[in-house]
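[[Sequence with C-alpha cells]]
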Amino acid sequence: MRQTGTPRPGRRGLGLVGLSALLLAAALAACGGTASPAGGGSASPTGGSYTAPAGSLPGSPAGPSEGSPTGTPAGRIVVTPLPISSIDVTLALSQPVQVVAHVSGYLPNTCATAREPQVSRSGQAVTVRIDIEQPADAVCGQVATPYRRDVPLGTFAAGDYTLQVNATKTTFHVG
C-alpha cells in the first residue's frame, strides 16, 4: 500500500543545493569557451583567438598574477584582438614629426584585460596589435567597458602612411 503526503526514503527532490549546482552549470555553459587539446594551445589562422596553458606565454606566470582579474583560475588564458571602434591620428608640430594614434575600443566583459600595444613598422605601413586576455573558464559579467589609449608611433618623414590597429585601417599624411 502506498502512503501519500510523505516522501519515500531515497527519492527526495533536487533541493536547494542541487538546484544551485544545476543553475551554476547552466551559467557556465552559457558563457561558452573554446575547448583545446590538453596541455597545448590552439591558434586560429584568422587571428581570432588563442587558448594557451597558463605560464606558456612569454612573460606569463604559471598561475594568478598581479594585474590579472580577481579570482583568475590557474588554468587556460584566452587571448583575442581588442575590438576597435575608432582610430584618430595626431601629428606633433616638431621636427622630426611625432605621430600618436588615439585608439578607442571596448573590453567585452568584466574578466577581460588589455595587454600593452605592440607597434611594428615596415616602410609606409604601421601595424599596432592590442590583445585582450581572459581566463577561459571564468564566469564574467557581460558588460562592455570602453577602452581608450594613446599609442605613440614614433617619428615620421614626409609621406603617406597606412595605420592598421587590429582589423581596423586608416591612413594619414605627414607633410
